[in-house]
Write a structure and sequence with these properties.
The chain is an alpha+beta fold. It is about 25% helix and about 40% strand. The protein has one domain: Nucleoside Triphosphate Pyrophosphohydrolase, CATH 3.90.79.10. It is globular, with a radius of gyration of 15 Å.
């Protein structure tokens, strides 16, 4: 699935990132999702970052999530891969950013170690996360994750 906003132009630069929608399911079967607040934009979202040369999307998502949260042990849910595409200006130049999101389950819900990029991290129910997420494309990604988990995937 791809979520896109705005229209692409041939004059824009492109960025490719990858990240994780991370969740934990407690013994009470209540799911909590991890959101991070970005220092620069003050927006709430998921851990993500650029895919480096020679790196595949999964490796980039795992690396970035580890760097941004300290979480290293993530069980990737293979049925989930959502691409969010959006446009913005970087140095007054149109830029298209494609972000591949994977869904990951963690056994332990601990307070994330935050990199210098973020000021806060919170574990939230889906309903609360949907209210806090800043951008509609991130809300759409979370809805898809929740839909998959609720319909046919159960945490180990």
């Amino acid at each position: 699935m791809t979520i896109t906003n705005l229209i692409s132009t041939s004059e824009e630069s492109r960025e490719h990132s990858a990240g994780f929608v991370i969740y934990h399911e407690g013994k009470d079967r209540k799911r909590k999702y991890l959101l991070l607040r970005h220092r620069a934009g003050r927006h709430w979202g998921f851990p993500k970052g650029r895919v480096e040369r020679g790196e595949d999307e999964t490796a980039a998502a795992l690396r970035e999530t580890g760097e941004e949260t300290g979480i290293k042990r993530i069980e990737r849910i293979p049925e989930f891969r959502v691409v969010s595409c959006y446009h913005f200006l970087r140095n007054n130049k149109p830029t298209r950013k494609d972000v591949v999101y994977f869904l990951g389950h963690v056994e332990k819900k601990h307070n994330p170690y935050l990199s210098a990029e973020h000021t806060e991290g919170r574990w939230l129910s889906c309903a609360n996360a949907l209210q806090l997420l800043t951008y509609s494309d991130a809300r759409a990604v979370l809805r898809k994750a929740e839909e998959l988990i609720a319909s046919n995937y159960h945490s180990p």
